[in-house]
Amino acid sequence: MSAQLVPILYLLSAVLFIFGIKGLTRVRTARRGNRIAGVAMLLAIVATLVLMGVIDYRWIIAGIVVGGGVGAIAAVKVKMTSMPEMVALFNGCGGIASALVAMSVVWTESIEPGTSTTLAHALDSSSSALTVVLSILIGGVTFSGSLIAYAKLAGKVVKGDPVLLPGRHVINVLLILGALGLGTFFAFFTTVPDSIGLFAVVVLGLSLILGVMLVIPIGGADMPVVISLLNSYSGLAAAMTGFVVNNNVLIISGALVGASGLILTNIMCVAMNRSLANVLFGGFGAVETTSGGSAASDYGTVRSYTAEDAALVLENAERVIFVPGYGLAVAQAQHTVKELASLLEKHGTKVEYAIHPVAGRMPGHMNVLLAEADVPYEQLKEMDQINPEFKNTDVVIVVGANDVVNPAAEKDPTSPIAGMPVLKVWEASTVMMIKRSLSPGFANIKNELFEYENTMMLFSDAKKMLQEMVSEMKSALAA
C-alpha cells in the first residue's frame, strides 16, 4: 500500500510547493500561498514517515512539539523590525539540518558498520558520495553565514560595518579548495572508518569558517542581498541532502528554494547596481577605495518644517505617494501611516505607496510591514511602475528611507551608489522627508535631496511626526 501511496503524496506535495511559491509572488495571494506551502510540507512529512515504516514516534512528537513551539513563539513575539534576523536564523537552521543529515549518513554507512570501504562504495553510488560532501559544505556555509548575518542585523557581537580582512579572497579560495579536496578524499579514496569521520568533521569545520569569511566583509546596506542568497544556499543544501537520502520531494523543494532564491538575489543585485558575480564571490557591499561622494555633514541650506506646515500642504494635495524605509519599521509607524493615508483618502486624495526592492533589511520587508497595517495591496507600487508617476504627484512623504531616494545615484557618476536604480521622488511638486537628523543612510554619503527647494525636512521620530500630522489633518478637516 505504502509503495503506491508515497509517490502520489510526494507528487502532490511537489505540485503544492510550486503553487505555494507562485502565491507568494503577490501580496494579495501571499497568505494563501503560505498555507498551501504548509500543507505541502505536511504531506511530505507524512509520506516520509509512511515510507520509513517502523519508527519511534516519541522522537517525532518531541521534535514537532519543540520545533513547533519555538516557531510559534517566534512568530508571535518577534517584532517586525527583527523579522530579517529571524529569516536569517531560519536560513541557518535549514543549512545546518542538511549538513547534519549528511553527517548522519557518513556515520550510519561508514563509521558505524566499521567496514574497510570507501563512502562511495558503501553508498553504492559515486554521485551520492559527492552530494554528501556538497551537502556538508553548502549546509555549513549557510549556517555560519546566516549567524553572521543575524549578528550584523541585530548589532550583536559583530558590527554592521564591513570587516575587510587582508587577503580574504585568497583565504576563501583556499578554504573552498581545501574543503572540496578533503571531501573528495574521504568520499572516494580513504577506507578507514575513523579517517572518513575525521575528514568529514574537518570539511564541516572549513565550511563553517568559509561561511563567516563570505559574510563578514558585507555591510548592512547589502543585507537584503545576503538574506536572499543565504536562502538560496539553504535550498541547494536541502536538494543535495535529497540526493543523499534518495528523497525526491526534498530534491524538488530544495531546487525550488535554491532557484527562486537565486532569481531574487539577481533582482536585488539589479536594484543595488551590483553584479551577481560580486555576490557569489563575496566581499560585496564594501567600499575599499575613496569615493567621490560628499561628506555627510556637507549641507548648505536645509529647510526644516513642522507637522502643521506639512498638514497645510497635504490639505491641497490631490495625489500623495508614501515611500517607506527601514526607519518606518524601527519606529513601528506603519499603522500611523495607514491612519494618515485614510484621512487623506476621505479628503479625496489619491494615495499610493512606492516600494523599492531593497528598502528595509530583507526582500519584501516593506510589503510585509504595510500588509500588517492592512494597507490595500493595490496601492503598493513597484519602482518601475511608480517612477514615471512622481512628476504627476503633488506630495511624496518619505518615511525612514534615504539611499533609495538619493539623486546622487543618477546625477553623480563618482558616487558609491552611481547607477543604482532609485525612486525619483525629487520630480514631485513637494517632498517631505521624515528623519531624526541629517545622518546618512547605509551608504554613508550625503543626500542632496535634503537641500532641494521642493524638499520639506521634518525632523522627528517617524511615529511622533506622523501622529502630529494626523492630529493637524483632523483639526483642518474638522474646521
Gist of the model:
This protein has 479 residues and is of the alpha/beta class. The chain contains 18 helices and six strands.
**Overall number of domains:** 3
**Helicity, in percent?**
55-70%
Total number of beta strands: 6
Largest sheet: 6 strands, parallel
Please state the structural category: alpha/beta
Using the CA coordinates, give the radius of gyration: 26 Å
Mean pLDDT, to the nearest integer, reads 87
Number of continuous helical runs: 18
**Low-pLDDT regions:** 282-296
Which shape, going by the Cα principal axes? elongated
The largest sheet has its strands arranged as 3-2-1-4-5-6
Question: Separation of termini?
Answer: 75 Å
**Element-by-element helix/strand order:** HHHHHHHHHHHHEHHEHEHEHEEH
How large a portion of the residues is in β-strands, by DSSP E? 5-15%
